[in-house]
Protein: FHA domain-containing protein
Amino acid sequence: MKCQICGAMLPTGAMFCGECGSSSTATPLTRKRPDPRPSDTTIIEPLLPRRPAVISVPIQTGPPAAPPAVSVPAVPMSAVTEGPPFAPAGFVLQFSTGETVSVRGTGLIGRRPMPQPGETFDQLLTVADVGLSVSKTHLEFGQYDGEFWVSDRFSGNGTVLRRPNEGPVRCEPGRRYMVARRSRIEIADQYLTVN
Structure:
């Protein structure tokens, strides 16, 4: 008799495999973990784009007063950039599942990413993982000073960061890791590259 998980030969009457420790009656289908939230059918509406803050200015009822003199320092043209002010740099995430997504700001990645109460994110990215190795909310990402960072959200199978020309780093849950462009982020059986 053979173990249906690792293929090792089992002695007659064995209850467990001596190689992988699986039950002698285990099959690849029985080894899959059940979905911990099978009845969760929450529909997440897309987030509306952020609007600039509104500043209230009192309306004057009399004749307009002369504006106060304000000195404005000169800004060199090399410091002026195109696009909206304070816009974070864009990054492109290429997933092993074939999707390519351009991201700005913050977000969550997982099979069914959901923010905790009180949290808001710019993007929620769903990974199609048939093997259920990726957690529902596996990874958080964001940007700081024009650099991309990731943080493992206490996922079941963990996150491994592979920066160019460096060894792999297993991400400690809840801690932010800076990610250089062309890095590979492994989330369980899936991965993504940052460009």
